[in-house]
Write a structure and sequence with these properties.
Helix 6 (about 85-105) runs antiparallel to helix 7. It contains 14 helices and no strands. The N and C termini lie far apart (about 45 Å). The chain has a single domain, classed as Orthogonal Bundle (Tetracycline Repressor, domain 2), CATH 1.10.357. It is mainly alpha-helical and about 280 residues long.
């Protein structure tokens, strides 16, 4: 049982929850203007991990045949046979139940919106079959995190959380475009859509840089909308430097350090912004 669970965690890359979870916490802590209490914190954490597990499993199931053809993804557990499709369907059902129960534990609005979050997560997995905008749709899925965090505490939509969500969308799109650069030839062969496959690597990197510029812009606007203090902007400056570094270590001519840019550098960004928010909140209020 434990070994099977470890395989599931490997399939969904549970460690990459660090990409979205801190942004959900930002929305939560901003709505509360400080510590939101253990109940909200724990239910939000459970909901975010569950919905991410659901979305990743859906993506693996939907892309099963594609992953089996792509040399880069042939070692994924579902392709290798370490997991069966039936086991994945059971895992999906369990994730949905846990997610909906966690949303119910937060408030009625979260429960009411939970099916929309699930449907949008499923929709993304099909988008690379018909649009190069798939990177931005993936970004919008993760961009729901700060909005979800806010309504988990205060059941209404707010400008700061929406602006942070827009920043997350462009941040994710930017690094997903870089990641897709590894599969340009495969995507063309299979008739799949991505910005590098449709427009070329040079254009793809330009799109990525523009997306990350817009990411920082929306984070700045979110800070103004919330009336954030100096610590928020200090850490935002550090994030901007990291994004610049990310575009220095990879280029259309050299993709060898794509994993450094995608996994290592990006893993710091959401954490750093959350730390900036925490320092700003607890030294300000």
């Amino acid at each position: 049982m434990m070994n099977k669970l470890k395989i599931f965690f490997r399939m969904i890359k549970i460690e990459h929850s660090v990409f979205a979870l801190p942004f959900a916490y930002i929305g939560l802590f901003w709505a509360a203007k400080g510590w939101p209490g253990w109940t909200k914190f724990l239910f939000l954490t459970i909901a975010m991990v569950a919905v991410r597990s659901f979305a990743m499993t859906v993506n693996r199931v939907v892309d099963f045949k594609i992953d089996a053809k792509n040399p880069r993804t042939q070692d994924r557990p579902l392709v290798r046979g370490d997991l069966s499709l039936r086991e994945c369907y059971y895992f999906l059902c369990g994730s949905v139940v846990i997610f909906c129960l966690a949303c119910a534990g937060l408030n009625k609005l979260c429960l009411f919106l939970s099916p929309l979050a699930l449907v949008w997560s499923v929709f993304y997995s099909y988008t690379k079959r018909f649009t190069w905008g798939c990177h931005f749709i993936l970004g919008s899925v993760l961009g729901l995190a700060p909005v979800a965090g806010w309504i988990a505490y205060s059941p209404f939509f707010s400008l700061p959380s929406i602006l942070i969500g827009c920043g997350v969308m462009f941040w994710v799109a930017g690094f997903d475009i870089l990641y897709a650069s590894q599969d340009v030839e495969f995507d063309k062969k299979e008739g799949l859509f991505s910005i590098p496959a449709v427009f070329g690597l040079e254009a793809g990197f330009a799109f990525s840089k523009l997306s990350h510029f817009l990411c920082i812009l929306f984070f700045v606007l979110a800070g103004f909308a919330f009336n954030a203090g100096v610590f928020y902007y200090i850490f935002l400056l550090i994030i901007a430097i990291i994004l610049l570094l990310e575009h220095r270590v990879v280029s259309p001519q050299d993709l060898s350090k794509i994993n450094l840019a995608f996994f290592t550098l990006n893993g710091f960004i959401s954490i750093l912004l959350f730390v900036g928010v925490l320092l700003d909140l607890f030294l300000k209020y």
